[in-house]
Amino acid sequence: MHCPFCRHPDSRVIDSRTSEDGLSIRRRRQCPECGGRFSTVETASLSVLKRSGVAEPFSREKVAAGVRKACQGRPVTEDDLALLAQKVEESVRGTGASQIETGDIGLAILGPLRDLDEVAYLRFASVYQGFDSLEDFEESIAQLRADHGTA
Hints:
Layout: E1 12-18, E2 24-30, E3 37-43, E4 47-49, E5 55-57, H1 60-70, H2 78-93, E6 99-101, H3 102-116, H4 118-128, H5 134-150
Parallel strand pairs: 4-6
Antiparallel strand pairs: 1-2, 2-3, 4-5
């Protein structure tokens, strides 16, 4: 890690602490050259492999934006969307993979969205799973009803 003061190419870690959410580490560093102290925040990288083959960093904001469209007109707050995006990220990171496909992210969204709002879930699932007919909606609604009966 380069020193931000003198650009020395090395630094010594003085202290390390895990962040509150457990997804990053804050490290306090000291430059052996000038003695300057500075902090860094380290996170494990998670890449999303898109259908086009391009890889880009995972973004909670993109998850929330995609779900926001399905939640339009529903009683879902921005805090609900942020919490959903956090759950999705935790679920995806829990797989241990450093690269994940967009389809797997969509699957990770379905569970928490279903718990949040069933109408938004149906909207999202209809696009994500490519519903082609009324029968697809009926099957999904029948599954939701069956799950309510067992709950």
